[in-house]
Write a sequence for this structure.
């Protein structure tokens, strides 16, 4: 007997605009996480130095990838860099 997963809710299709907004949110969030990792690295002691070094490298790789995806979709990265804080539809503050 196989157990099958049955989704009760209908999957809502997202529009291209929704996907682009989510991508921009992720870029801003990742950029902030990278800034925080750099700050934490400055004050890290002993074993945490390696941890924050790896975290910085991971966040930078993620940010590079997200920017590459944004450029491929035709989103101007300069526009994203100009966004410091934004309030989106859900009332969520970014940053």
């Amino acid at each position: 007997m196989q157990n099958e997963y049955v989704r009760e809710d209908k999957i809502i299709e997202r529009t291209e605009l929704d996907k682009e907004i989510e991508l921009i949110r992720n870029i801003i969030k990742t950029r902030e996480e990278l800034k925080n990792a750099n700050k934490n690295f400055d004050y890290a002691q002993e074993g945490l130095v390696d941890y924050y070094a790896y975290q910085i490298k991971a966040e930078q790789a993620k940010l590079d990838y997200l920017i590459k995806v944004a450029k491929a979709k035709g989103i101007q990265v300069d526009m994203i860099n100009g966004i410091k804080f934004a309030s989106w539809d859900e009332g969520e503050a970014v940053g």
